[in-house]
Amino acid sequence: MSHASVLKAAQMRAAEQAAFDRGVDPYALMECAGKAVAQIIWRAGHRRDLLVLCGPGNNGGDGFVVARLLRERGVPVRVAALSESGTDSARRARAAWDGPVEDVMTTAPATQVVDALFGIGLSRGLDGAVAQRLGALVESAVASYAVDLPSGVGTDCGTLLSDVPRFGVTIALGAWKPAHLLQPAAERCGRLVLAPLHIPLASQVERLVAPGLTVPAVTAHKYSRGLVAVIGGGMAGASLLASEAAARSGAGAVRRLAVDGPAGGLHAIIDRHVAQPEALASELDDQRIAALLVGPGLGLGADARARLEAALESGHPMVIDADALTLLAEEHMPSIPSGAILTPHEGEFGRMFGQLSGSKIDRARAAANRSGAIIVYKGADSVVAAPDGRVAVAVGASSWLSTAGTGDVLAGLAAGRLAVTGDPFRAACQAVWLHGDAARRCRPAFVADDLLDALPAAIAARL
Ligand SMILES: NC(=O)C1=CN([C@@H]2O[C@H](COP(=O)(O)OP(=O)(O)OC[C@H]3O[C@@H](n4cnc5c(N)ncnc54)[C@H](O)[C@@H]3O)[C@@H](O)[C@H]2O)[C@@H](O)CC1
Ligand SMILES: Nc1ncnc2c1ncn2[C@@H]1O[C@H](COP(=O)(O)OP(=O)(O)O)[C@@H](O)[C@H]1O
Ligand SMILES: [K+]
């Protein structure tokens, strides 16, 4: 099983059911989950007083197991329940707890609070008074833990079905769920910890993990490491940022095919002045180009459209970003080359694909399937989706990335990694990871240019 697998509630239930069908005892699985959660809380909180809030289902059952195991270790534990327990396993876990069971609505606050009210079985938002009570108890605690999920989040879509407080730690059971990674739920989870359940779990959707990168081969030369061509437009800064990101991505050479000609920036970047779009086709007629980037600073007029058409017709592996995505949403454009990488933010995604249903993961998948392209659906939760159904979801990106030009850096990085690897899904995943890691290495209030300086360290950390 991959430690990155992301499963929807129904997939999780199917995996659990398959384990039960093979003879795994449901109560043994609950004990296993509770033991893992108790261990994590013990390591973090030791003997500080702890209140476990238990709901009616198996999530509440996990809570009773956690309460019992921590009390056995000498932690002063109190338990408060919402109602009677409604499943066989939960009733058994409750029976094994020999302390009192208080009422969630009237119980006193504690230094540590464990939310075992609802997990993947939540079907609607919590009642207003219960949600308010949970919020008050979590906010007055020094440490708070959500078992599997914070109660009130939509497991499969990451929306908030009722008010949800921000937890210190969320302990995912067995596998990640979309709500651990997608906003706004992800932000309520706090630190994410995975507790293994030791049952087989597989999914095409995974949490984005740190990539393994390699140093250039001893026999490498600049073209074998990948030549990136960046098509410029009316706004020089955007294509400069993208070109510099490509140059610092590990690619061998970067050529900027720009309207403006030399415009400062790194001396390592070869600037070619391509004043007329008609001249672009011959510049692109170079088989050494391993990846092409079009879009950053391109503009939206007839000239920009002609440059985009030349790019689409070149046959090179490519990354399509920014203005090029907006142009592609217009009528009578050539089709998107299969295997291209598209990097839309929310607005560009909506213009290209309209209103799709489901979670951000579902929407990215549908867009990849429809376009035949790799979709990097950007934002505080970036989703990379391939037409074959593979998905990687990035979590925990710095919100300081919400500044102009960071998307241009990502696009340049993606083109650079595409030139190096020749594998668009892998390249997109590597780019999103390196972009996020570069941001983590920058001081608050950084600007897009600062990301470029942080890239070598982000790459070095993955060699
Ligand atoms: N299936 C299993 O064997 C295992 C499940 N585990 C735990 O079980 C959880 C899932 O358990 P369940 O399927 O029992 O689901 P939950 O415990 O998440 O909640 C389901 C119960 O809550 C009720 N309910 C749903 N929404 C409500 C609302 N808004 N207000 C009031 N009641 C509401 C449902 O009718 C049902 O009785 C997982 O998240 C995980 O914590 C773990 O113990 C591992 C093993
Ligand atoms: N609130 C946020 N938290 C984390 N990352 C963000 C946030 N907002 C934007 N980003 C990231 O910053 C980049 C912004 O890209 P984009 O919107 O295209 O900006 P620009 O066009 O100005 O370069 C994307 O990689 C996106 O995922
Ligand atoms: K919970």
UniProtKB/TrEMBL annotation:
It comes from the Bacteria. (6S)-NADPHX binds at residues 58-62, 119-125, 148, 238, 297, 345, 408. Residues 12-205 form the YjeF N-terminal domain. It holds the Pfam family YjeF_N. Its cofactor is Mg(2+); K(+). K(+) binds at N59, D115, S151. Its EC number is 4.2.1.136, 5.1.99.6. Binds 1 potassium ion per subunit. AMP binds at K378, G379, A380, D381, S382, G407. Keywords: ATP-binding, Isomerase, Lyase, Metal-binding, Multifunctional enzyme, NAD, NADP, Nucleotide-binding, Potassium. Catalyzes the epimerization of the S- and R-forms of NAD(P)HX, a damaged form of NAD(P)H that is a result of enzymatic or heat-dependent hydration. This is a prerequisite for the S-specific NAD(P)H-hydrate dehydratase to allow the repair of both epimers of NAD(P)HX. Bifunctional enzyme that catalyzes the epimerization of the S- and R-forms of NAD(P)HX and the dehydration of the S-form of NAD(P)HX at the expense of ADP, which is converted to AMP. This allows the repair of both epimers of NAD(P)HX, a damaged form of NAD(P)H that is a result of enzymatic or heat-dependent hydration. HAMAP family: NADHX_dehydratase, NADHX_epimerase. Belongs to the NnrE/AIBP family. Belongs to the NnrD/CARKD family. NCBIfam families: yjeF_cterm, yjeF_nterm. This is Bifunctional NAD(P)H-hydrate repair enzyme. It comes from Sphingobium soli. The lineage of its organism: Bacteria, Pseudomonadati, Pseudomonadota, Alphaproteobacteria, Sphingomonadales.
